[in-house]
Amino acid sequence: MRVPALVRLVRPALAPTAAADVLAGAAFLGGASTGSLAMAVGGSVCIYLGGMAQNDLCDRERDVELHPDRPLVAQPGLVKPVYLIVLLLYVTGVAISGALWAALAAALLANAYNLGLKKRFPFDALTLGGARAANLCIGFTIAAGPMSGVA
Question: Among 16, 41, 45, which Cα is nearest to 31's?
Answer without folding.
Answer: 41
